[in-house]
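SAMPLE LOG
Freezer: B-3
Tube label: C17
Construct: single chain, 356 aa
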Amino acid sequence: MLLDIGIVGAGINGMCSAWLLAQDGHRVTVYEQQAPMAATSSASSKLLHGGLRYLENLEFRLVKEALTERDAWFARAPHLAKPLELLIPVYRGSQRSRWQYALGLMLYDGMARSKFVPRCQWHDRASVLANHPTLKAEGLKGAYSFWDGQMDDHALGLWVTEQAVFAGVQLKTAVQVNQISPDGKLQTQSGESVRHDRLLNIAGPWAHSLAESSGIQLNHQLDLVRGSHIVLKDSCQQAWLLEVHGEKRIFFVLPWQGKTLLGTTEVRQELHEPTRCSTAEREYLLQAYRHYFPKSQCEIESDFAGLRPLIKSAANPTQATREYVIEQQGQLITVLGGKWTTSMALARKVREKVIH
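STRUCTURE (predicted):
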């Protein structure tokens, strides 16, 4: 049976869901308060990754799914998604030992079984410093290399949007949905009321607030966490995964458009607060970077931040689950959480909910 489906939110999760449902022949309309990929979906760390650090939280299902989806993006959009080699230097006094990294990386590679990227490899101190002479040498034991992926999140998201529209999706931008109901009806800020056979609330950080303001009780809550990034003017020849000195948190140093991208932070904020990189976050990232590259000029060109809708699950946002949940009340389906990399896997599960 073909359905008339409304989707609130034109981020990557909403547009992947719209694309799949339109391919099935359903009539799909997407309502977006700004423009496609205008918020969280274009403010990521630009990585397609399984989430190596999620193994520490025992999120094996999610990591396996994300690794599979990482490779699927390589195959689906090779013009916008590519493999990326990262190095993890190991020092005396690192929060994790060489063997902890080895175990995690071997498990990571084993779960991926990728035909796109090589397996992890250990590099001794001499070879690491020969290839990367600006890296801090004191206490260095060596480094592991491993592979994930990099993409232009905005460009790849717009490509998905184009595929969805080509498949028949009707996209309505600058339309704010103020009310949703379990019978599939929505009401916009302008007063327009529309009823769909199925209504999907995939509004990212706004999904829980939209349900709550509509009088709909959900079983899960969102933990809104800002992730900020800074872009340095220096070019970057190598991607790095690094521990913040004295902490178990990790951050990335990535090549990005001829510059160096540093990220990310994890700062809780309210939905109504502006999502922007604070002075404290810039200093935090710069200090973390200078610890490993003390001779860097560290001249900031720009910064950006995104608001991640995590499932509320831990006191420390670093330990919060990166899983997603799909709840249903009548003809209304609400998505909470979700990662860029797993957006198509999430869309397939949304499709299953719609048709059953």
